[in-house]
């Protein structure tokens, strides 16, 4: 339904009190209007973030913004400026660390930097955390001086030391071992008391479009690599996973899950695997759970053909093993096929 300008403005102001019936009515109408509902939710998220720092709208008395400022905001100028300055800050920090030999930036995204601080091999977790905090304090001091000098403004930016990885893995782009994938990494995160855990961000082990089998294989291999397990043992572990799958012991972990975005009849140009499986179900809707068989994708509970284990070997296990094998002593073909490694045996 269309939303009037009055309701739009009233909804963005939010109800003033619990008794503001007109305000709540306008907000309910706005939440039924999809674009406005997204904007209201974003505004609520901002208010929540501010409140976490003890900042509330009732405490603020901002000057009325001029219309041209609002137009620039609506056109996305602010978002572009924030992203642009974020990139500038990352490049400046990277150069500063390298020029002063205080660390090497391994990876950075919009709001994070991953720094190799050149710690000694015998550094304790407590010492590593203290080094991280000291480096962060020094960077903030340098940043404050830089912003004042270049922009003649006080600096309100604040870098925070977040975590320490004793081991860190950046998966390379497939086909290019020199460049890392964006938004994906893993590390052995260590607390200052020495406790540790494998943390995986953006990789297959935490993605819904990969099976539980792939999740477990990747997590198991990364944990082993981070703890220095030798290549021959890594290959044996992969072969155990493959053998267990082929024996049918991991069938429950081979399920794909994907949601239908429209009715089954609406897919005309292409037929993705989950749609092919959905067509075998009466009144299919929502998330489709299916397994790839030798006759193609079939819904869970309605299999009429044997599971295609070679599909899972090639599409779920091999890509994970190949990626990890690029950075450690892991022979992919030995791991997946069990072919004896004569060179390792002779060595």
Distance between the termini: 74 Å
Number of strands: 10
Element order: H for helix, E for strand:
HHHHHEEHEEEEEHHEHEEHHH
Order of strands, main sheet, comes to 3-6-7
The mean pLDDT is 87
Helix content: 40-55%
Q: What's the gyration radius in Å? A: 27 Å
Q: Tell me, briefly, the overall form.
A: flat
Proportion of beta-strand residues: 5-15%
Runs in which pLDDT lies below 50 for 5 or more consecutive residues are: none
Number of helices: 12
Largest sheet: 3 strands, antiparallel
Q: How many separate domains? A: 4
Description:
The protein has 347 residues and is an alpha+beta fold. The protein folds into four domains: 5-62, no CATH class; 78-162, B family DNA polymerase, palm domain (Palm domain of DNA polymerase, Alpha-Beta Complex), CATH 3.90.1600; 168-249 and 311-346, no CATH class; 255-306, no CATH class. It is built from twelve helices and ten strands. The protein has helices at residues 5-13, 21-31, 34-52, 67-74, 77-99, 125-151, 212-226, 231-246, 273-278, 309-325, 332-337, 342-346; strands at 104-109, 112-116, 165-169, 172-173, 176-180, 185-190, 196-201, 256-259, 287-293, 296-299. The strands form four sheets. Strands 3-6-7 form a three-stranded antiparallel sheet, with helices on one face. The protein has a three-stranded antiparallel sheet with strand order 8-9-10. Strands 1-2 form a two-stranded antiparallel ribbon. A hairpin with a 2-residue loop joins strand 1 and strand 2 (112-116). The longest helix is centred in the middle third of the chain and has 27 residues, at 125-151. It is flat. The mean pLDDT is 87.
């Amino acid at each position: 339904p269309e939303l009037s300008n009055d309701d739009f403005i009233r909804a963005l102001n939010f109800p003033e009190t619990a008794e503001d019936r007109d305000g709540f009515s306008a907000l309910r109408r706005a939440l039924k209007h999809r674009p406005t509902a997204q904007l209201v939710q974003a505004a609520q998220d901002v208010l929540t973030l501010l409140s976490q720092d003890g900042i509330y709208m009732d405490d603020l008395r901002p000057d009325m913004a001029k219309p041209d400022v609002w137009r620039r905001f609506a056109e996305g100028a602010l978002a572009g400026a924030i992203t642009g300055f974020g990139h500038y800050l990352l490049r400046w920090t990277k150069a500063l660390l390298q020029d002063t030999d205080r660390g090497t930036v391994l990876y950075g995204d919009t709001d994070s930097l991953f720094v190799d601080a050149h710690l000694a091999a015998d550094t304790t977790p407590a010492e590593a955390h203290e080094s991280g905090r000291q480096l962060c304090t020094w960077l903030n001091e340098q940043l404050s001086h830089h912003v004042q000098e270049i922009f003649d403004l006080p600096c309100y930016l604040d870098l925070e030391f977040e975590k320490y990885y004793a081991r860190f893995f950046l998966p390379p782009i497939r086909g290019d071992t020199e460049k890392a994938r964006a938004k994906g990494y893993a590390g052995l995160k260590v607390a200052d008391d020495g406790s540790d855990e494998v943390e995986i961000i953006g990789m297959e082990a935490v993605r819904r479009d990969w099976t539980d089998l792939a999740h477990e294989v990747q997590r198991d291999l990364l944990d082993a690599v981070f703890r220095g397990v030798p290549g021959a043992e890594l290959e044996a572990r992969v072969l155990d996973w493959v053998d267990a799958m082929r024996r049918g012991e991991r069938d429950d972990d081979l399920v794909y899950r994907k949601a239908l975005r429209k009715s089954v009849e609406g897919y005309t140009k292409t037929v993705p695997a989950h749609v092919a499986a959905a067509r075998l179900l009466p009144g299919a809707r929502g998330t489709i759970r299916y397994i790839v068989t030798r006759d193609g994708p079939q819904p869970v509970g309605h299999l009429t053909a044997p599971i295609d284990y070679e599909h899972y070997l090639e599409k779920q296990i091999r890509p994970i093993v190949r990626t990890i094998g690029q950075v450690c002593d892991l022979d992919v073909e030995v791991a997946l096929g069990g072919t004896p490694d004569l060179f390792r045996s002779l060595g």
